[in-house]
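Review this chain:
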Amino acid sequence: MEIVLLVSALAILFIVIALAEPVADRLRLPYSVVLAVLGATLGAASVGLSTTYGDQLSTEVQALLALPIKSSVFLYIFLPTLVFQVALGLDLRRMLDDWVPILVMAVLAVIVATAFVGIALVPFSPMPAIACLLLGAIVSTTDPSAVVSIFRSLSAPQRLARIVEGESLLNDAAAIALFGFFLSFVMAGVPNPTLRDALVGLPTIILMGIAIGWIMARAALTCMRLMDAWPMAQLSFSIAVPYATYVLADHVFHASGVVAVVVAGITLNWVGPGRLAPAVWTNLREVWDLLAHWAGALIFVMASLLIPRLLADARWTDFLLILVVVVAATAARMVMLWGVLPLLSHFKLSPKVERPYRITILWGGLRGAVTLALALAVTENWRVPADIRREVGILATGFTLFTLFVQGTTLRRVIRRLGLTRLSPLDLALSRQVVAVALQNVREEVAERVRDHALTREIVRSEAKSFAGRLDQAVTQAEVDSGIRQKDRIPLGLIAMSGFERDLILDAFHEQELAPAEAEQMLTNVDNLIEATRIGGRAGYMAAGRRALGAGRRLRFAVWLHNRLRLSWPLAPMTASRFEILLNQRRVLDELHGFIDGKIRRIHGRRVAELLHEVLKVRQGDNEKALEALRLQYPGYAEELERRFIRRLSLRLEEREYDTLLKDGLIGKELHAALRQSLTDARKRVVQRPPLDLTVQKSEMLRQLPALAGLDAAQLRMVQRRISTVYVPPGEVLIRLGDPARHVFFIASGAVEVEFAGQRQRLGRGELFGQLGILTRRPRRAQVTALTHCTLLRLDETRFLDLLARNDTLRQAVAESTKRRGLLDPIARTVVESPDAEAPVLDLTQQEPLDLSPPEDPPGAAKPVTQ
């Protein structure tokens, strides 16, 4: 019978969840508000039935009305599900750009809210100060779902929505960790922590939670990789990750279980797309979205069922205390939004948040499932004094109801009053452009398909005329808009072009031409282009394009590890991934020209299309320059990637042919399955990117340099002792004009640019530079700049001249290098080249300085073109 009651209760709860969504959409209310109303109504009905009829009810009905709802259900089943899914769904790579405001707004917001609420309650509440701070930690958690969903419907800045969402995730983790700390102060029979325990204990449980979450996620990924042939097993294994992590952290190591689950989700989100098959990763995200939807709804409804019981013995003084909590929490939020956030914006650490959006965030700071779950945990803890349990339950529940029923029900009205629902002229024109382009596509598609059907000509002509009138009206609205100036059409075209670029990347990913990690990075770059164009127009678009090709924080940190600590394992995969992104980006940019001519020209005219072509050519030039620099640095690697692309393309086309044969009935399902399995095995081999080796031993570097190929074993050991390795980032000036010549450089890997007499030349792996200044004993006449990350071998003047006098191969390499640059006259050639093997070694340091200035051009000669 207990099983029947439990199943009946679950059925009722899921019916409530199913009805809440259409009701919320119909009433234009946040989903959480409707869930709370339905849950509180059911709770009030159960209390009313139990009070009115009591023993007259059947045993089954009494048991159903008194369904036990424990905080342990929330904390061990629903809470890990919620935070794990949020961590899986975050766009981590884009949030890295805003980690400072997210971290500050999350951690600092919890501390400020806890302090404001706790201090404000002390003069009015009979609870001790530590219990007031405990309540402050409980009500400091926020539910961003309402604000984020509204931001997305309003086309608010994506960066702002990301900050709010990321803040809420870390906010919950920080608040729950702080809650556990303060709870230990108020529990009877538990040794009270000292200040030293506070300063050491709280960071310890957080750091331990971080370590446990990372280890569990990495172990889970290793196990899931072993299940590549069983996708359903991988999905099932992922379900166990948050629960095992929470129990291990909370019960075994007494660390923060929520922090551990958050870190496990973030780690899986970061590493998973590159380790799991794209289809498996997509299914995993969808499964967890559904689980989190159910968990969030169930925790809200079940907690709302308890609202009548928690407020049953409330007194009028309690409502005054609820008002104090409301004012203090609002003041704490205002300090963050009008004090801390502008300060971060001033130092360029956060986007500038306009006043309407700040008011929306303030009024949309709803409290929800986590707050109710923590309050319930306190009311069920028998070690907490009864008066504290009562006050915490009433105040936390009352404050949550205020945010839901007062702020939640009026949030959309506030947004309308702020004018955020009105489309800007740019967005209005963009929507008209989309409609016009869509209708043009529909007309072309309909015309194509009508040809294949024997339809009545009069009907076709009539419908075509009707549709043409609608299309003309849409095109006219898009082309002739008094509110949009000609220069404003350029951002519209750039946004449309970026949207098509996004579609091309998604198509390449779905066709398995792109790895998940590279596709995600390219999509992130496109989102940055769109967002920058909305804010800064064409200049913002160009700046975002240059930033996409530049070095981010992760890459700079990897370069620092490579240069300073000789740790190349982070930089090698990043460089290889950059190589692949540039190759695929080149193909995507080529296709955008056709989109400009076929779509954008129809809407915005010839002039705008020409400008977009120019902007696109600049991006293509920057992309080619970055790609060429990598080609110089790693010759042959781009060829391997191109071969890999062709193999992946052939496998995809082969798979398509097999599907067609099955559809036409030419092969059976068994043969088709066998062929698909063979393709899967082949694709696993092709998907593996060829390794990129950044670090080579010094002796290996010396052997690979053509200029030093003739060294015998003794000379090689001597040079190896005296030569030094130098790592330089792109853009660093290696030799400046006018500097004294003291060293010669050999390029072990990378590429440099030499500027001499107004001309530029690029040198790659195996080349040398800096020798002319030493040979001529003059200050540097050229400037050399690194184009890529370079590994150079540096030899000082004395050793170089000594080695040059003893080694024919090096003398020949110096002569050839100098000839290629057209800088050596016949006199210098006689100095560098040895006449024969029997001739005495020349003392190059005693030679007269040579004149290496460019010879005067004869009259009428063509001037060299400066690159």
Summary: Confidence is low (pLDDT under 50) at residues 824-867. The chain has four domains: 71-417, 428-643, 648-679, 698-846. Residues 648-679 form one domain. DSSP finds 32 helices and eight strands in the chain.
